[in-house]
């Protein structure tokens, strides 16, 4: 039988922040290298997803309602 591991909220949040930041920097680097508008849009979306982590839950929807995101 496997045991599940409980991650403390603060540690889980740090992991999520790190993952979103890494996704943003990778997308930004790709956009700078390719200069493709689609890569630029992806970098902008990754930035938005990172910033959303700092907003209160009732205002996160403002960032996500653009480009069909929920």
Quick structural gist:
With 70 residues, this protein is mainly alpha-helical.
Describe the structure.
The protein is mainly alpha-helical. The chain has helices at 9-34, 37-52, 57-64. α1 packs antiparallel against α2. The protein is flat. The protein starts with 8 loop residues before the first helix and ends in a 6-residue tail after the last helix.
Q: Which radius of gyration do the C-alpha atoms yield? A: 15 Å
State the end-to-end CA separation. Answer: 37 Å
Main β-sheet: number of strands, strand sense, barrel status? none
Can you count the helices? Answer: 3
Number of strands: 0
- One letter per element, helices H and strands E, the order comes to HHH
Structural class: mainly alpha
Oligomer: single chain
Mean pLDDT: 82
In percent, how much strand structure appears in the residues?
A: under 5%
SSE order and pairing:
Layout: H1 9-34, H2 37-52, H3 57-64
Helix pairs in contact: 1-2
Features:
70 residues, mainly alpha, 3 helices
């Amino acid at each position: 039988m496997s045991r599940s591991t409980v991650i403390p909220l603060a540690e889980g949040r740090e992991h999520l922040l790190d993952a979103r930041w890494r996704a943003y920097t990778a997308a930004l680097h790709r956009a700078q290298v390719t200069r493709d508008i689609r890569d630029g849009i992806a970098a902008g979306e990754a930035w938005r997803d990172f910033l959303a982590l700092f907003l209160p839950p009732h205002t996160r929807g403002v960032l996500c309602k653009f480009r069909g995101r929920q």
